[in-house]
TrEMBL record:
<dbReference type="InterPro" id="IPR002410">
    <property type="entry name" value="Peptidase_S33"/>
</dbReference>
<dbReference type="InterPro" id="IPR000073">
    <property type="entry name" value="AB_hydrolase_1"/>
</dbReference>
<dbReference type="InterPro" id="IPR029058">
    <property type="entry name" value="AB_hydrolase_fold"/>
</dbReference>
<dbReference type="Pfam" id="PF00561">
    <property type="entry name" value="Abhydrolase_1"/>
</dbReference>
<dbReference type="InterPro" id="IPR050266">
    <property type="entry name" value="AB_hydrolase_sf"/>
</dbReference>
<protein>
    <submittedName>
        <fullName>Alpha/Beta hydrolase protein</fullName>
    </submittedName>
</protein>
<dbReference type="GO" id="GO:0006508">
    <property type="term" value="P:proteolysis"/>
</dbReference>
<feature type="domain" description="AB hydrolase-1">
    <location>
        <begin position="38"/>
        <end position="293"/>
    </location>
</feature>
<dbReference type="InterPro" id="IPR005945">
    <property type="entry name" value="Pro_imino_pep"/>
</dbReference>
<keyword id="KW-0378">Hydrolase</keyword>
<comment type="similarity">
    <text>Belongs to the peptidase S33 family.</text>
</comment>
<dbReference type="GO" id="GO:0016020">
    <property type="term" value="C:membrane"/>
</dbReference>
<dbReference type="GO" id="GO:0008233">
    <property type="term" value="F:peptidase activity"/>
</dbReference>
Length: 307
């Protein structure tokens, strides 16, 4: 990894409603412009996480010479934080993040030829971006992402029924009492996450680091999502891209894990409605196959980008 060409920077991002200057922090692995491989722009999940847990995608640069661009979305990580906008559902909307992505593409001067990979919430954002038929978008990877929040909640609650009864009882008790910060509730949620978020033990430090930002500044996650995956109360509660998926012109790769919280029922609408699409499932993974089955993940993504 040390031999990789890596640079970091910040893109000025004009957000009129922010009432202060905003910047998007980014990291580029590899060479821009590249003579033959379009860069892969990576959109992280959350909403409210950061790039760290996706840093391993720099393997695509090391192995296949694909330039990889990671960035922290506005409100998160090393980009500008806006805690004064906590709870403002008119501010934290999909269009804000679509605008930020366009701004970054322009800043890096790659708007004419690039690919996009979005993971979890990042895949939701990527699908929204692609429905607008942006110029220069070649290929699209939607990894571990739902096509609608209603389907996502249904899948999460279906998977919840597979938990040991005492874990289900703890979840039910604290949700009814609105005591979801209780250690017993958090332990029960962690049992769910061990099965359906990341099956590795110990959990990779990069994933711990990415999620830790959501505790340091919960503004984006709490406003857009809510308390957790079972209780979506924020802006995304009614989010649904299904009726616009037919507008996606980019050839698309869908990815999920066999044990993924984004279970098959939430991925299937992408497969049904995107015109040019294929779907690969990772048999030994939950929500982060790029960490759980790294070698195969890189091979699958590279074969798609190259094909």
């Amino acid at each position: 990894m040390s031999s990789l060409k890596v640079r970091e920077g910040e893109a000025d991002f004009n957000v009129p409603d922010a009432v202060k200057p905003c910047k998007t922090w980014y990291k580029v692995y590899g060479t821009l412009p590249h003579p033959y491989n379009p860069p892969l722009v990576v959109l992280h999940g959350g909403p409210g996480s950061t790039h760290e847990y996706l840093d391993i995608l720099s393997e695509l640069t090391r192995l296949f010479d694909v330039p990889v661009i990671l960035y922290d979305q506005i409100g998160n990580g090393r980009s500008t934080h806006l805690p004064e906008k906590n709870g403002n559902v008119d501010f934290w909307i999909v269009q804000l993040f679509v605008d930020e992505l366009h701004n970054l593409l322009n800043h890096l001067n790659i708007h004419d030829n690039y690919n996009v990979l979005g993971q979890s919430w990042g895949g939701m954002l990527a699908s929204e971006f692609a429905t607008r038929q942006p110029k220069g978008l070649g290929k699209l990877v939607i990894a571990d992402s739902p096509a609608s929040m209603a389907l996502f909640v249904k899948a999460a609650n279906d998977l919840r029924k597979g938990l040991p009864q005492e874990v289900q009882d703890a979840l039910n008790k604290h949700e009814a009492a609105d005591t979801t910060t209780d250690p017993e509730y958090i332990a029960a949620m962690n049992e769910f996450y061990k099965r359906h978020s990341c099956r590795l033990d110990p959990v990779p430090q990069s994933l711990v680091d990415g999620l830790a930002w959501m505790e340091k500044d919960p503004t984006v996650y709490s406003t857009m999502n809510g308390p957790n995956e079972f209780n979506i109360t924020g802006y995304l509660k009614t989010w649904n891209v299904i009726d616009r998926l037919h507008n996606i012109q980019a050839t698309t790769l869908l990815i999920n894990g066999r044990y993924d919280i984004t279970h098959d029922i939430v991925v299937e609408p992408f497969f049904q409605h995107i015109p040019k699409v294929r779907w690969v499932q990772f048999a030994d993974s939950a929500h982060v196959p790029h960490l759980e089955e790294t070698e195969r993940f890189m091979q699958v993504v590279w074969a798609f980008l190259r094909g």
